[in-house]
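Deviation from plan, reported transparently: PMV complex.
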Amino acid sequence: MTIKEFLPKQPYTIIESGRLTCSAPSNIALVKYWGKKPQQIPTNPSISFTLDSCRTTTTLVFSPKTTKGLAFEVFLDGKLKPDFGPKIQQFFERILPYIPFLESYAFRIETSNTFPHSSGIASSASGMSALALCLVTLEEQLTLTSNPEYAKRKASFLARLGSGSACRSLEGGLVVWGEHSDILGSSDLVGISFPYQIHDVFKNYQDTILLIDEGEKQVSSTVGHNLMHNHPFANQRFNQAHTHLKEMIPVLESGDLEGFISIVEREALSLHAMMLTSDPYFILMKPNTLAVIHAIWDYRKHTGTPVCFTLDAGANVHVLYPKNTSADVQHFIDRHLLKYCQNKRSIHDEVGSGAKRIKI
Ligand code: PMV
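Because the crystal trials were delayed, the predicted structure below was used instead.
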């Protein structure tokens, strides 16, 4: 696969004006992406569960214009958000060679998230993938073509240029992004569905997100990724991610929960170890993040329930467990973990089926 596949091929027809709506979920990485090269190329491959109810719905309203340059406004829950401008401007500039009609229309981007904006859950993965799917849907309308498989692939390619991990939110289930010699079809350019057998236990895995700290992160992912350049442990980390992904293949096939837990928790802690050992160093975990981790370990040790944690680039904890343990684990979360959350808040989610078109 090369970037050529995503350059425009057919001539565009003119559509006067219109609107269309797409929705895309967030995702949670099991093997983490941390570090990138120019053009949003990851320095190691990653794999994630696509989530279901944590999602962004975006309506793209478009009308033709004759002035030069890009023209757009972004609204979150009906309110104009000028502060989203620079990120969308950069995204549009990056994808212009692949979506040249961006300069021919004025856009109104109306977006809303199912999860609270201040929750510390990154909205960039769901937001960028929903917007990318809107643009590819419009491209199909302008070129009078329809190829749903290609559309998702191109939307993943574009979403990656907005926010790397967003490219893993188009497909459902388990998604791999980044080249890996043991994963057929894996690519640095797009997220692909995990191409091998998956044990039933991983098809409806549960994820309860504990909102430990709802504030803005002190260090953005962009800064964190950049600190992997010249990081003393960078190469070891990239090799480790390759090894973990290789180890994941038989684990996912056989339903080996012990193996799964061991890789997933090692990955979460390695990600944060990179932050602890960057120059400058930083810590995104909070005391309650550690309290939750210890409580999960205690509970697992005493009950044998295969529950584990993972972390993204923040203080929140994702509690992962098989659906058939839901009743017990949710009781444990309510009784022993919610007290560590800000305002006792958590969000329940599970593996979902990916981005979709709502109204076209
Ligand atoms: O897509 P970004 O630039 O927000 O980076 C995401 C990085 C992690 O969430 C920490 C890991 C991952 O693979 O999603």
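The chain has a mean pLDDT of 96. We consider this an acceptable substitute for the interim report.
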